[in-house]
Amino acid sequence: MKTHFAALAATCLALSATFAMAADKPTDPQIAHIAYSAGVIDVEAAELALSKTKTPDVVAFAQSMQKDHEAVNDMALALVKKLNVIPEDNATSQALAKAAEERRTELGKLDGAAFDKAYIDNEVAYHRQVNGALETLLIPSAQNAELKSLLETGLKLFQGHQQHAEHVAAGLK
Amino acid sequence: MTPDLLSRRQLLMTGAAVLAGGASARAHNGKVHVMIENLGFQPADIDVKAGETIEWINRDPFAHTATVKGGWEVLIPPGKSATHVATADDTVGYYCRFHPNMTGRIKVVA
Ligand SMILES: [Cu+2]
What's the whole-number mean pLDDT along residues B5-18? Predict the structure, then answer.
């Protein structure tokens, strides 16, 4: 249990550092890549959860993450195509992917109630981090109005996910 | 008229009804309509009479619910609509179970 919390803390730190490091304002192609990557990461976490848990509230949460993040990423793909923007890989996206892989490895070792709790706690922390980045960095940096508007929809959606995760977490106790 | 134009017109009419005030979210067919768009219930507050049908129309690509804590729940799939027949004790607050930052109120009036 101790190692798990240490790993979770490390993941949170890595994420904070990830967004803090990006002192330079990201460009629209980079923002699109970061937002898309953040969605893919949560879909993959949901797929892991669906392969591991049978707890109804956790299953419902993971299914909702999978569907919502896929839907918003489809919107993002349609928008970048329309705008002729090619999403550009960048240090923030790479750090996000690396932190997520470490988190997945940690979660993969857990089962049952320990998995449920670790997955949901991670989801609360992850959505909080992403929402912070959207509010303070990605939305203010976005130049294109349609991209900005999609990010604002994403923020409302992810704030909802954070609250949903908090409700599920409260129910697990 | 294409379905797209039709829905746009319905949307405009609903918009006008919202501007006109509370209870006029109701449409010609007697149902009280609540649009769901961009993760919000519009209008968020509605007045209904017991026995009237509330219809949520989900224009988002996300599944939503209208959930009353400790009470009923209506699931509204993406791009679909769903209904609930108001009862006398339906003066309630509701929220979306998947996105609890989405909230609405129903007031049952005589
Ligand atoms: Cu919702």
Answer: 43
